[in-house]
Amino acid sequence: MTSPTNKAVSYEGTISALLGPTNTGKTHAALERMMTHHTGIIGFPLRLLAREAYDKIANLKGVNSVALVTGEEKIIPPHARYFLCTVEAMPYERGFDFLAIDEIQLCADPDRGHIFTDRLLHARGKVETMFMGAETARPLITTLVKNVAVESKPRFSHLKYNGFTKLTRLPKRSAIVAFSVDDVYRLAEIMRAQKGGTAIVLGALSPRTRNAQVAMYQSGEVDYLVATDAIDMGLNMDINHIAFAATRKFDGVRPRQLEPAELAQIAGRAGRHTKDGTFGVTGNIPDFDQEDVEAIETHTFPPLESFCWRNTNLEFNTPHQLLRSLEVASGHPALVKGYPADDYKTLTELMAKDSVMALADNPFAVRTLWDVCQIPDFRKALLETHSELAAQIYERLIKPRASEVTPLDNGWIKEQVSRIDSTEGDIDTLMARISHIRTWTYITHRSGWVRDNQNWQERTRAIEDRLSDALHEALTKRFVDRRSAILLRSLKEGNALLAGIQKSGKVIVEGHEVGVLQGFEFIPDETALGQDRRAILTAARTALKKEIQHRVMTLLNAQPTQFKLSDDGQILYQVELNNPLPGLPVAKIMKGTAALKPDIVLFTGELLENQDAKQILEHLKNWLDAHIKTTLKNLTDLENTEALPAQARGIAFQMYENWGVVPRASVDTLLKDLPAEARPALRNLGVRLGPLYLFLPLMGKPAAVKLKAQLYNIWHGKPLPAVTPKDGSVSIVADAQTNEEAFYQAIGYPVFSGRATRIDMLDRVVSAVYDTAKDNRFQAQHAWAEWLGCGVEDLYNILAALGHKREEPKAEEAKTEEQAAQPIAVEEAAPAVEAPAAETPVTTEAATAEATPQQPAKPALAWFQLRRGLAHKEKKQFTPRHFTAKRDDKNKDGNKEKPKFKKKKFDKKPERNRDEERTYKAEAKQADSPFAVLKQLQK
After folding, report:
1. pLDDT 10s digits, 652-671
2. What's the order of all strands across the beta sheet hosting 512-518?
3. Dihedral angle at the C-alpha atoms of 836, 837, 838, 844, nearest 10 degrees?
4. What is the pLDDT of residues 349-402, one digit of tens each?
5. How large is the angle between the packed helices 383-397 and 363-373, nearest 10 degrees?
6. With contact defined as beta carbons under 8 Å apart, do 699 and 660 qualify?
7. pTM, rounded to two decimals
8. Which helix (H) or strand (E) holds 441?
9. 341 contacts 310 by C-beta, under 8 angstroms
């Protein structure tokens, strides 16, 4: 492979470089110099700048003398003398008397720099060559290009730093600069509301849309411009001030801070010709460092250390040789590799496709493959998406062992283009379509790729124009508010605004809908901010004054049923007494001084008078207090228990502080010392002294559970709505990620073995355990699982979590045990099951006969070793016997005589083998009923 050169070509003409900051007239000088020659060509970094120069020269020399050549547009009259091009599309091999490259400092750009460097080293005019750019490129240009005459061009006007300025206080004719589409939209929305409108300049806009937006700014229709760094090259506008709302950008590889020279390129757009300009920061951007300010104001920056370079002596024998030739280094320390270009990345993607590699079997096919890889990715889509389109195009252009391309099928092109030909959609959709059609415009300009090139070029161009016009209209509609202009003008001139309110609550000002009245809160239109908002509120106060007073009086006289506390903590107010709908939000509850005493924040807006707001707030507080006391009556009653003994008051206090649920162990001392008369008093307050917990059974109602959950989350700073068991649920699987165990206990669903169980049913099961226990062991019952709304395995886990130890089943019981462990078909949120008052036998013979064959006996459940704890001791309490002996009854040793008891004899029965089958017999007399037999069997 031939070694590539990194030296400039030998040249006998003159070479000059015009270097300096923005607003020095470099481009204007090059255009004038070109027209002194018979032929000339200039390469620009942007299609927009090439089009701007084309229009200017065409007006001076006539359209037949000027050509425009870009990737997506070619206007080449037969006798054109002057070519205005993008750098990538320059046909400089044709030979021109004059050749110039604008913004030559872009040789250092890691994305496109290798193209500018190639033009610097190899592109020459027959008579004169000129490079225009920043002063930072001087050392490398003089090193790489022999006999170059460098001329420094001073700036026509001065640039001064103004520091920080609030966004709302920026002067007219300001441009606000950000580096992402989202930031540009956000800033434009603010400027629309604050200043009535703004123009938009983005790199993704088509030249037609960008020109329309710039024209709107230049004409004074709007006084502000929000843009990306797309304004940093060649866009000549009447900008007085540049405000940086960002100083970091994503450069295609990583987010990074802009260098001072890059900031200066953008700031230099302020001030035109001899008119001075200013620059500064706004938003959340800190002031620039003094060193950077001085560098920008004096245009003094460190020189560039290297240019980006890529080999242009490519080999096309095979795709692999092409790839290797692209990776050759320059051999010069000042010429370095930049980022992998889009065409290089597309090539690597296509080489991974077998179908492509099968076609690229000769130099012509490889060269065509490289041409396809250079289709620009205007869409900036995922690499895989762009490479997939490139693969389809290549496979349609190249046939096996072909030496020429096969033009793309018109039907296929029509199918692709027709998908894009629609002006419907939002701004982002329209920009995406413009990017798509630009890709097809580029394809139609490639020689031999498309039949009837001119027809397709006109069609794609027309689609782009339609999309561009629609995009301009969408941008103007979104970011330029005619209503704002009217309101601001009337506010400034002191004119009265006509305003009114509709029955639906919509507020109309000067024929425009400006907001809606919800409750007492006037909600302006979402675009009404800043001065626009102030004007709207001024008009709304006049129109809504009487309506607000009427609504205040209506609410103050409302019935309690007209208010409702929503799950998300809002107080809803229904104006109509019998209307079943919840109503409109007028306030929300928030954390107060105590868990059961939340505060209220009123949705007042800006139209409600302070005195009216205080009255409404007091009214709502009274309603909320009554609502809590009614729904949580048993719990709130525990706050005032002065009449109870001290120990009972202590228990009541702890229950009040702990949402009505207290573990028995935590109040065991108080219970031991509790007077006998205090227990009925606690029961009268609704307190149940259960074996595990002291709780309030009536607080298990759904309304009480929901309200406690809501108040708990507000008190602990948790989000609303609170996630609670469904109404009537006995138990659910506890969600530890959503709610903590303390939450479940507070709402009356303590957690055992990962399952939150309603406390009254848990208490019922625990009591049944100790009631049925014998010899420190008990057998689980199917009824317990039904009470808890769970399966048998869940029942076992809960019993184990309560401290009872499951006994291992014996071999002959294993099968029965396995059958018993099958889960009962109970839903996760099972309905509440109320325990029967007692085991009442069926009293009708028909019922027994009907039930017996249809209800097969359920298998016996597992046995457990009883946990002997506080609950057990509570169940086993008994009163010891007391005996009295006379003082003079002493034995001979002088001690008291001990009472004598008769020993009761018990007949010891032989120990029964528990593994032995037991047979029960009962002889029924004729007078006995079947139930008498069953009762004997139960003994």
Report:
1. 999 999 999 999 999 988 88
2. 499-501, 506-509, 512-518, 521-524
3. -70
4. 999 999 999 999 999 999 999 999 999 887 666 567 888 999 999 999 998 888
5. 140
6. yes
7. 0.55
8. helix 427-444
9. yes
